[in-house]
Design a protein that fits this description.
The complex is a heterodimer of chains A (137) and B (369). Chain A contains 4 helices and 4 strands. Chain A is of the alpha+beta class and 137 residues long. Chain A is globular, with a radius of gyration of 19 Å. With 369 residues, chain B is α+β, with helices and mostly antiparallel strands. The radius of gyration of chain B is 26 Å and the shape is globular. Classes of the chains: A alpha+beta (137), B alpha+beta (369).
Chain lengths: 137, 369
């Protein structure tokens, strides 16, 4: 699993589960150097469909963390202002790229990914049910 | 204008603030969570106009202000100003949206189909008084059963296939030659777009400024001006080409690997309107953070109006963008509550002097008629 795929999954996973997993991982990662852990904004550019130009839709509040574990830097950000969630994600990112606890991380990500896929599929099935043939109106 | 400094009255000001809190529900974490979970469209509106996607903070702002929208938007904008800008996300394109509602009033048979999604458009607008009656009769602490949505197809039917990223109606129209082709635009540096939060609007505004201003505009203001256009003060009489509610992934570049990853999804809405009165179809467009159909439809109509060679004065770009900025407009409005004693006294003095001058003036023959 690529590092960005792991983050794609875990940033949308329940924060409590991610924090618990990182907590369990922590003894294998010490010493951890936290380079940055803060809240801030990301500007979101949007491509319009009328003239295909881009503009800023607005800003997104995020929490980010940048850590160093076993000489490998890890980074992550998540929506909102939960600094612990960002830190947990960054630790998992660093561990994954440092080759620490690889199978455990992969298993955890697989479980979370399955939940996310199930949620998305249920939503899309529900949305699909609202497809309407306007001839019948 | 002239003002006088307000001095003293600290006790009264503190009491006034406490009275405001007393007359609202107690501010608690549970209230904030309840607002965030049960009033998502209101939260979306505050985030859109606050130009900051932070559902938890928008809910807090609503709880803290007793639901005063302009105060809530101001709180969110004020909070935003305390935060550093850490990154520019990757540009969101329509093909990447997870679309949950997508309808067109121009064509019945659009590629991908008409998807009503979450909507009350075709529902009876009737108050559910039975809920109140149940509460009054039973004084039950238990919540009414939550509504459920079936994600299963009716028995005997195959589940409907649904593409969450259907082709844009405009792209289909371009492929059919109904809309002029758009020149190929090279990839844009996400950090290089004109930004209203960093530079003031100048007119005529770059399109990026116009669309950013509409995205953060006051819903009521956009609706009022858009409605004036719809009622006949405008020059365009468009229909909704496509209205879309969706989730968009916010993708950042990993500072170590350089690869883009998603930090989560946000709710977005966008609308295109199409005008058939010119020699070729023309599109108007607006999008915003959160799900807000009225603002997107009215804004898209104003986008068309602002492009007219001689728009109605209330639909000129400068008029629309200046007068739909919610924090500036509401702030200017409520500043009139501040002491204007010197201004008013000056006007009163001028009035008295004018009256005295008029009284002292010799009467001309014929004035007595």
């Amino acid at each position: 699993m690529q590092a960005h795929e792991l983050l794609d999954i875990l940033t949308r996973s329940p924060a409590d589960a991610v924090k618990r997993f990182a907590e369990d991982l922590l003894p294998r990662l010490e010493p951890v150097e936290v380079l940055r852990n803060r809240t801030g904004l990301a500007m979101l550019p949007f491509r319009e469909t009328a003239q295909e130009s881009s503009f800023y839709l607005g800003e997104i509040l995020l929490a980010e963390a940048h850590v160093r574990v076993a000489g490998v830097e890890g980074y992550a950000a998540c929506l909102g202002r939960d600094l612990e969630q960002a830190l947990a994600l960054a630790l998992i990112d660093a561990a994954h790229r440092a080759g620490i606890a690889g199978p455990a991380i992969a298993d955890f990500a697989r479980v979370q990914a399955a939940d996310l896929v199930e949620t998305d599929e249920a939503l899309m099935r529900a949305v699909g049910q609202t497809r309407v043939d306007l001839e019948t109106f | 204008m002239a003002y006088v400094a307000a001095r003293g009255g600290e006790a009264a000001i503190l009491q006034s603030e406490q009275l405001h809190q007393l007359l609202n529900a107690p501010l608690s974490l549970a209230t904030v969570r309840m607002i965030e979970a049960s009033l998502p469209y209101l939260v979306d509106r505050v985030m859109g106009e606050g130009s900051l996607y932070a559902p938890e903070l928008a809910a807090l702002a609503l709880a803290q202000t007793g639901g005063d929208l302009y105060e809530a938007v101001l709180l969110l904008r004020a909070y935003r100003s305390t935060q550093p800008r850490l990154a520019y996300a990757e540009p969101v394109t329509q093909t990447e949206l997870l679309t949950v509602r997508r309808i067109s009033a121009s064509f019945k048979d659009i590629p991908g189909g008409q998807i009503l999604g979450p909507s009350l458009d075709y529902s009876h607008r009737l108050l559910r008084l039975d809920l109140l009656d149940q509460d009054n009769q039973e004084h039950s602490a238990s919540a009414p059963p939550a509504a459920t949505v079936s994600s299963d197809a009716p028995a005997g039917e195959a589940p409907p296939s649904y593409d969450p990223s259907p082709l844009a109606v405009a792209d289909w129209q371009r492929s059919e030659g109904l809309l002029a082709a758009v020149p190929e635009v090279p990839p844009t540096d996400p950090a290089s777009l004109p930004d209203l939060t960093r530079e003031p609007a100048d007119f005529p505004a770059p399109r990026a400024h116009r669309l950013q201003a509409l995205a953060r505009a006051d819903t009521g203001g956009v609706l009022a001006l858009g409605y004036a256009s719809m009622r006949g003060y405008g020059l365009a009489h468009p229909t909704v080409n496509e209205l879309r509610l969706a989730y968009a992934d916010v993708r950042l570049r990993h500072p170590v690997t350089g690869e883009a990853f998603s930090i989560g999804r946000v709710r977005v809405s966008q609308c295109e309107v199409v005008n058939t009165q010119a020699t070729e179809l023309r599109l108007g467009y607006t999008a915003t953070l959160g799900w807000n159909e009225v603002k997107c439809i009215a804004g898209a109509m104003l986008d068309l109006e602002m492009d007219a060679p001689q728009p109605h004065p209330a639909h000129s770009e400068e008029f629309v963008l200046y007068h739909t900025e919610p924090v500036e407009a509401s702030g200017f409005c409520i500043h009139y509550k501040l002491p204007h004693y010197v201004t008013f006294q000056s006007g009163l003095d001028a009035l008295r002097e004018a009256r005295a001058t008029a009284a002292d003036a010799p009467t001309e023959p014929g004035d007595a008629q």
